[in-house]
Amino acid sequence: MSKRDLEARYIGTIGGPLWAIFHPIVTVLIYWFVFSVGFKAVGPSGMPFVLYLLGGLIPWLLFNNTLLASVSAVTGNSHLVKKTTFPTEVLPIVNWLSETFTHVVLFLILCIVTWSHGHRPTLYLLQLPYYYVALGVFVLGLSWLVSSIQVFHRDLSQGLLVILNLWFWITPIIWMKDMLPTRYNWITDYNPAYYIVQGYRNSLLIGEPFWNDWSAALRFWMIAMSFLLLGVYVFRRLKAEFADVL
After folding, report:
1. Is the dihedral of CA 230, 236, 241, 243 positive or negative?
2. Do the domain assignments include residue 163?
């Protein structure tokens, strides 16, 4: 292998992880500039908007990126799927773990920004693994579901982009829940993404224990476990036909 080929391979090896981190950072900077600098937005109780934004956007990006990567987990790895001994169920899990690397880096950046604004770490940080696992249960159930359906309906990935875009804007990530009229509270009450987003903020910025709102936790776990069981069932039911269709 020539020196040029080695350099190209090296650049490709480090370029992927760097871009995975650079892209969300640029996204955060754009939202921060538009809403904080342009619209002079502030978070609840006078919280700096950048903290409110980061607290919600970082778990959302983990959810969004894992789901977008997993929708083509089966169709994009047909060479592995056609091997009868390969456990295709692990493909969405691999995407989840891969996105976790970016998530950890962004979370460390969030911690630095948070502490630079005078918010010191508290014991509530210890409940973040709970929200991380909760997000994993929900997104893996969805990932198994959409990745198995994508094999038979290849346009699902395009529809998923639309759904996630709508989901982002109905989740209080760059806006606050109290801006919503009371009669529309069901939009956040039954939105699993909001439970996770607010959980991250409660743990890092607000200092609220996860057991404060048992009704929200119950609603989340009912929805998350329903999608997990549905995703596992559909994936296993359709798995036998993957190789033939691909």
Report:
1. positive
2. yes
DSSP H helices in 38-191: 49-70, 78-81, 90-116, 128-150, 156-170, 186-189
What CA–CA distance (Å, rounded) separates 26 from 125?
A: 26
The pTM (predicted TM-score) of the whole model is: 0.87
Residue 208 neighbours by CB under 8 Å, 6+ apart: 124, 202
Q: Which two tokens stand for residue 21?
A: 């981190």
Question: How many domains does the structure of the chain reveal?
Answer: 1
Residue 34 lies in a domain: no
Taking alpha carbons only, the member of 66, 70, 54, 61 closest to residue 23 is: 61
Give the Cβ contact number of residue 24 at 10 Å.
Answer: 22
- Whether 194 is covered by a domain: the verdict is yes
Q: Cα 93 from chain centroid?
A: 13
H or E element that contains 90: helix 90-116
- Domain span at residue 60 reads 42-245
**pLDDT of 143-172, one tens digit each?**
999 999 999 988 898 999 999 999 999 999
The number of angstroms, rounded, from the C-alpha of 6 to the middle of its chain's C-alpha atoms is 34
| Span 36-46, pLDDT tens digits | 777 777 777 77
* Structure token pair of residue 20: 């995975």
CA distance 246 to 151: 7
- Our measurement of the distance from residue 242's CA atom to the centroid of its chain's CA atoms, rounded to an integer in Å, reads 26
Examine residue 30 and state whether it is found in any structural domain, yes or no. Answer: no
Rounded CA gap, 148 and 89, in Å? 10
